[in-house]
């Protein structure tokens, strides 16, 4: 899902929560207060699950790692929520001690509903990513062949593999940089491309895949190709150096 949709979605969710809980509790200010406290953690949790765990583990069928990291993510997220709840009630106790129990009762379900929204949003995102990848698979992507076919600007685009300089991740999209200077943007996931492209392509970072044949020079930290320098992250350093050689 694109960034504009995510912004509109979470803004709409925030407004709805403020209206619903504000009407129920009789205080839109308190509702806005709690939503403002909780929403950053909820959005961060949702982003990590949908942008990291789902494409890098679930869709690549690494199920044990996915459920392990998902459990860690939820534990950390819930603990942060509890800390914020505690801080929020301490603050409210200072300003509204007489109404503290009523406020606690009125807003006790808000975190649960927020996590339910994360679950629903995550399911929609997972289905969306799955069908995007299926569509790309059916477009005869084959790194061992001479070309790939991707969907770009509402049409199928045939790209010669040898013309690819590098690929950059843009969350749910990737940018494919060609040696002609052209850039092709397509809706897919860089982890999926990494699993499908052949040995001529090397993952050097969460955000980058490079064409080994196009590399001009490299160190243990960076790769240079066609005047562009790209970082090698710690996660991919050992594999990259092993393939490229010292």
How would you characterize the overall build of this protein?
By secondary structure, this protein is an alpha+beta fold. It has 2 domains: 3-138, no CATH class; 147-244, LytTr DNA-binding domain (OB fold (Dihydrolipoamide Acetyltransferase, E2P)), CATH 2.40.50.1020. 57% of the residues lie in helices and 20% in strands. The strands form 3 sheets. Strands 5-4-3-7-6 form a 5-stranded antiparallel sheet. Strand 8 and strand 9 (222-225) form a beta hairpin. Helix 2 runs parallel beside helix 5 (110-138). The radius of gyration is 23 Å and the shape is elongated. The mean pLDDT is 80.
What is the total tally of β strands? 10
> Helical residue percent?
55-70%
Order of strands across the biggest sheet? 5-4-3-7-6
Structural class designation: alpha+beta
Mean pLDDT: 80
Ordered list of secondary-structure elements with their pairings:
Blueprint: H1 3-25, H2 28-58, H3 63-95, H4 100-106, H5 110-138, E1 147-152, E2 155-160, E3 164-170, E4 173-178, E5 183-186, H6 190-196, E6 201-205, E7 208-211, E8 217-218, E9 222-225, E10 228-231, H7 234-244
Antiparallel strand pairs: 1-2, 3-4, 3-7, 4-5, 6-7, 8-9, 9-10
Helix pairs in contact: 1-2, 2-3, 2-5
């Amino acid at each position: 899902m694109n960034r504009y949709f995510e912004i509109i979605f979470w803004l709409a969710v925030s407004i709805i929560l403020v209206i619903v809980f504000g009407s129920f509790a009789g205080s839109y200010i308190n509702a806005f207060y709690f939503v403002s406290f909780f929403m950053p953690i909820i959005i961060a949790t949702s982003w990590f699950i949908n942008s990291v765990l789902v494409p890098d583990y679930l869709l690549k069928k690494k199920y044990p790692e996915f459920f392990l990291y998902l459990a860690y993510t939820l534990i950390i997220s819930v603990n942060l929520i509890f800390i914020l709840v505690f801080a929020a009630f301490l603050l409210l106790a200072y300003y509204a001690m007489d109404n503290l129990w009523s406020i606690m009762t009125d807003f006790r379900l808000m975190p649960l509903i927020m996590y339910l929204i994360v679950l629903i949003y995550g399911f929609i995102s997972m289905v969306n990513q799955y069908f995007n990848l299926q569509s790309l698979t059916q477009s005869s992507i084959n790194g061992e062949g001479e070309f790939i076919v991707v969907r770009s600007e509402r049409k199928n685009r045939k790209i010669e593999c040898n013309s690819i300089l590098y690929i950059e991740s843009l969350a749910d999209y990737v940018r494919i940089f060609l040696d002609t200077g052209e850039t092709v943007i397509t809706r897919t996931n860089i982890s999926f491309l990494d699993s499908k492209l052949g040995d001529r392509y090397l993952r050097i970072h969460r955000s980058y895949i490079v064409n080994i044949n196009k590399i001009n020079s490299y160190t243990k930290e960076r790769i240079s190709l066609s005047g562009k320098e790209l970082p090698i992250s710690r996660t991919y350093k050992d594999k990259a150096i092993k393939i490229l050689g010292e």
